[in-house]
Amino acid sequence: MQPKIKFKISVKKDIDTLLAFTRDANFDGGENLNWAIFRKYPQLKKHYDNNKITNQKELEKFIKDKYKKEKEITEKNLSIYEKNWRKIESKFFKLSDELFEKKYWTKGKYTAFPTIWGMFPRFLEDKTFQVPYKYRKKKYVNVVIAHELLHFAFYEYIFDKYPKYKADKYNFLIWNTSEIFNEITQNSPKWLKVFGVKTMGYPMHKKIVKKLEKKYHKQEDINRDELVEDILKEAESIKM
Prior knowledge:
Helix content: 55-70%
Distance between the termini: 36 Å
Oligomer: single chain
Shape: globular
Strand content: 5-15%
Number of strands: 6
């Protein structure tokens, strides 16, 4: 059953997101922590030592104060995001139906939460994700929402078709495959007719995306299984 996206504000969600970026620093050397947190709020570095939190109470106070200060603009923007999404959601699901069977829209919260951070993560375990609490190009938020929803269906699909990839050792491969799949799909002519804006990809995927777009953007309807097989082959060469 196709999900109905909910839009909610939660300070706790953004606190949890900060903690998630901090935990991830153990695996990516703090790359996302720097990009999502310190690049946007360099003053928060003083509450860290070697990517470890030294004063969580002050970090939580910063987040709560930020939400209190930005309450009006956050509520206004979330309302705009929801209205914009409702206008195109049926078109999104029509496009997604060409890629994924309805069984891959499994049970979950399917909720969009605003974030004050510089990255917009998604959480596979409960089907929640985040959108910017304010953004100059508000219609691009539709692209973000579509991007995260595709991730939810993609992970259900790939673990169903290739159960071996559930093993932790494949996490990086499947993440890369999922991101490349989304970029090629969302930037295809058919999707751009609906969204009008390209999704932003990762620099490390640029070469693979460019190569595969030459093949798949010529197709009226993208062959999902063939595309995934091609990406998996290419993505094996990507190193952490």
